[in-house]
């Protein structure tokens, strides 16, 4: 059995092929001969001098069963490090986006004749701070026809340095000691060869209180030389299939939240659902919250998080889970390998089949400020609940929602007020089990029956066709432009989808029955999203670089192509955030056989009086989207035009060849033949 410092698994899918080749490249260029059967004399001397007293060297066991599969790899991934600024340049700002981390891959492992001692050959890579910004990439929400717009994506410089290592690992003590070498472009700008020693302390029996791996990477070069660097402190999470649950087995003190709104029951394996759950949740604070009594990360963190990332680490068939909760001060995606101790909680949870919710106990990482080697797990007073709503409405479109709170009293240190969180993940929607509750249909005084005259010769999009989705532009009273999209959410009681959907029940939904119209009208709900790069303002509030989401529901008149809905969106005035449902969205669809000049037209209007702080001037909605049949006709016309051009050019070339043959036979008629053939050629063009 392998010790718990690394998990012993097959090559995982999250390791990208380019990164694997990068590791392979490092191992080949490093001066340490790590891929041969015997160490070279320099490596052996370094180990004898610096490591032998930590994990004594031992001969290999020649039993064939001691050789792991060649396709297997030991891995250490959720991690963080401090130091090493001399060998890997870091930006000044370090937060959830700029998360540094360390990878350790043991590419070869052999048992030795000493019980519990394993020889390792590995690579270690320090990856510096990096940031992934994807503010304009909304394709996971959109899935629009014809165009999948993907805006500029920022990939800042991601410094890294790698080392090839050899050493031993004691399963009994949990100690790892390895020596090796690598190269780094130092701050001086000179490429230097570095000799290093890696020392790790790994838990032997993994529980939530004994789940941290700590260690250092130190220089073995001369202290006064250019290759020397200060020690690098390493912190990581131990991942073990033999993890022992301690908090959940005792039950959750104070219980989990209960209420009348039950979530969906998971009819398939719980782990299969939560294994793919890597969502980023938007956090929702109470209106009277402030930074002092609302921060789940404690008073030492100077920012109030706005999002939380969920990552499942372990899961059992009983529904017990080990989870990482990462917090950030932006809604952008958090790096999946981040393990910043100040921003991370470690939680044990269990799926409650009776209440259809996940209940969890979360703990903080503590004592890391002086040195990562002193880090420990404590303060397990944080509770979390999570469920999958069974009913959607205009005010609740989340596929996942939950709460996080403190079990402490308000006067205790570490207490914070209850925080809600929610996320939308379309792949978790089960059309056969989800219902939509229309609460605003029939109450829209601003949505009278369309005055458009019904024309039997004109037809408009069907409620379940892709023509109901469209890109849009919004223009405010100052002629500033924002761009986005609109897509149906539900029509009647049927989830709008054009692609096959794999749901929580594990079933595949592809056929959606047609809804019933009443007097030509159909209940329908929409998801509308827009953003702007420029200084786009609504009622004086700047919406530039913000993603605005509007949930709307109302009536669609298929006979006239008119759509009128009540909408809701989040508004904020002087730190007071509220859901404003006093808006009306009106859209007029062009006929399916419309000419190229006909476009989607509409408005977004406020029903509030002008004296209300949430009132805004009308936003003019327009769209240049075209219907599927128009796109097909356009493609057919382009194909015909290309064919005609090719035919005419072919004839022109043929006539030129014939002209040359004719002139060659009748040189006395050169001038008149040229004139005639040029006239014919121009006529063909």
TrEMBL record:
The keyword Transferase applies. The gene is LOC111495755. It catalyses: S-ubiquitinyl-[E2 ubiquitin-conjugating enzyme]-L-cysteine + [acceptor protein]-L-lysine = [E2 ubiquitin-conjugating enzyme]-L-cysteine + N(6)-ubiquitinyl-[acceptor protein]-L-lysine. This is RING-type E3 ubiquitin transferase. Pfam families: DUF2921, DUF2921_N. Coiled coil: none annotated. One of its GO terms (cellular component) is endomembrane system. Its EC number is 2.3.2.27. Residues 47-233, 275-419, 450-618 form the DUF2921 domain. Residues 630-670 form the SWEET-like domain. It is found in: Endomembrane system.
């Amino acid at each position: 059995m392998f010790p718990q410092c690394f998990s012993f698994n097959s090559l995982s899918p999250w390791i990208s092929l380019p990164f694997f080749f990068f590791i392979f490249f490092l191992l080949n260029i490093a001066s340490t001969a790590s891929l041969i059967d015997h160490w070279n004399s320099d490596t052996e001397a370094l180990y004898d001098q610096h490591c032998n007293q930590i994990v004594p060297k031992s001969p290999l066991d020649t039993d064939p069963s001691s050789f792991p599969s060649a396709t297997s790899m030991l891995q250490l991934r959720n991690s963080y490090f401090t130091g090493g600024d001399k060998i890997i340049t870091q930006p000044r700002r370090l937060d959830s986006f700029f998360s540094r981390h360390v990878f350790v891959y043991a590419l070869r492992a052999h048992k030795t004749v000493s019980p519990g001692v394993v020889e390792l050959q590995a690579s270690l890579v320090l990856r510096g701070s990096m940031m992934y910004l994807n503010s304009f990439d909304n394709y996971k929400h959109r899935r629009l026809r014809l165009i999948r717009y993907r805006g500029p994506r920022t990939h800042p410089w991601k410094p890294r340095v790698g080392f090839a290592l050899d050493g031993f690992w004691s399963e009994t003590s949990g100690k790892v000691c390895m020596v090796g070498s690598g190269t780094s472009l130092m701050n001086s700008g000179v490429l230097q060869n570095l000799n290093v020693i890696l020392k790790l302390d790994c838990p032997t029996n993994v529980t939530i209180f004994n789940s941290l791996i700590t260690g250092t990477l130190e220089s073995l070069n001369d202290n006064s030389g250019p290759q020397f660097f200060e020690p690098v402190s390493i912190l990581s999470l131990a991942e073990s299939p033999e993890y022992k649950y301690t908090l959940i087995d005792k039950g959750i003190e104070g219980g989990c939240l209960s209420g009348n709104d039950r979530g969906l029951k998971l009819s398939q394996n719980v782990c299969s659902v939560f294994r793919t759950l890597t969502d980023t949740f938007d956090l929702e604070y109470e209106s009277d919250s402030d930074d002092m009594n609302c921060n789940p990360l404690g008073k030492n963190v100077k920012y109030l998080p706005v999002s939380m990332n969920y990552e499942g680490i372990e899961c059992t068939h009983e529904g017990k889970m080990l989870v990482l909760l990462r917090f950030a001060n932006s809604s952008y995606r958090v790096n999946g390998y981040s393990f910043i101790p100040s921003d991370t909680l470690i939680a044990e949870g269990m799926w409650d089949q009776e209440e259809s919710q996940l209940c969890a106990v979360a703990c903080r990482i503590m004592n890391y400020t002086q040195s990562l080697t002193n880090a420990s797990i404590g303060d397990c007073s944080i509770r979390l609940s999570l469920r999958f709503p069974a009913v959607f409405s205009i005010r609740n479109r989340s596929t996942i929602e939950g709460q996080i709170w403190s079990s402490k009293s308000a006067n205790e240190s570490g207490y914070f007020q209850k925080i809600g969180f929610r996320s939308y993940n379309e792949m978790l929607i089960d059309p056969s089990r989800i219902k939509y509750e229309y609460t605003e249909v029939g109450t829209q005084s601003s949505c009278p029956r369309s005055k458009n005259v019904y024309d039997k010769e004109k037809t408009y999009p069907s409620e379940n066709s892709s023509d109901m989705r469209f890109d849009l532009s919004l223009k405010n009273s100052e002629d500033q432009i924002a761009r986005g999209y609109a897509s149906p959410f539900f029509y009647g009681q049927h989830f709008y989808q054009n692609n096959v959907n794999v749901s929580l029940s594990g079933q595949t939904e592809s056929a959606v029955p047609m809804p019933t119209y009443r007097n030509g009208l159909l209940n329908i709900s929409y998801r509308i999203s827009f953003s702007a790069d420029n200084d786009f303002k609504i009622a004086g509030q700047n919406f530039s670089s913000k993603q605005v989401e509007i949930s709307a529901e109302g009536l669609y008149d298929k006979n006239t192509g008119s759509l009128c809905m009540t909408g809701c969106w989040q508004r904020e005035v002087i730190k007071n955030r509220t859901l404003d449902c006093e808006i009306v969205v009106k859209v007029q669809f062009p006929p399916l056989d419309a000419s190229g000049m006909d476009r989607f037209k509409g408005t977004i209007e406020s029903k509030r009086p002008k004296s209300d702080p949430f009132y805004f001037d009308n936003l003019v909605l327009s769209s240049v989207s075209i219907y599927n049949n128009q796109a097909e006709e356009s493609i057919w016309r382009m194909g015909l035009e290309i064919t005609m051009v090719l035919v005419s050019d072919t004839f022109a070339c043929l006539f030129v060849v014939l002209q040359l043959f004719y002139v060659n036979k009748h040189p006395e008629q050169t001038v008149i033949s040229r004139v005639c053939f040029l006239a014919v050629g121009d006529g063909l063009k």
